[in-house]
Amino acid sequence: MNFSLKQLSGFMDLLNFLLENLSDKHMTLGDNLKELGKAMAGIGETDSERTGDLNFFSIEQAKAVIDYLNISLFKHYKLYEYLFHSPREELVISNEYVIELAQPAVPPFPALLEEGIPLDINSSFIISPTAAETESKGSDQEGYLEEPCPEAESFKAGAVAGVTAEDQKSAVGEISNEIIGNLEAEINEKLQMREAAYALRTESLKSPK
Questions:
Q1: Quick one: which H or E segment has residue 174?
Q2: Phi/psi of residue 109, each to 5°?
């Protein structure tokens, strides 16, 4: 049987009304049937005083609705009462897992993904020195640098004492003359190469084709 959208909406309202009577008002089967009769009263009649909200149903459609409610809701009324009113124990199923985390990269424990390395190799080449060891090494190095070496100081003083001002001037002059001589030789070589190249070009221009 075909129903319009308005008739389908009215049927869903009627079903919701009956279920609320059962769940909220705890109506028995007989009381709920009476409420259904009141809601369906006036269908197919022209008397305006008896017509209700479901007057858009025809008599055949009203019979089809009642038949459906009889085989669905009213036939299993006890089951719906148990569903709405009987307390049920809620089963909560859960699993608990214990996860062991790896040790942080703090000596003597190696860094992550390095557990397969032997301890001696890790301690010798991979493990980073502690802060105390770093500070001690740094202080030793600073003390070593700050302490003057007497042999070096004496060697330096002796080397400086044996050189006079004239020796220094002559050494500087020799170095400058050597540098300048090398530059002059390089410049002369480049000039000769350019002169030879220009001579070849001029000869090629003068020679008849």
A1: helix 165-206
A2: -85, 135
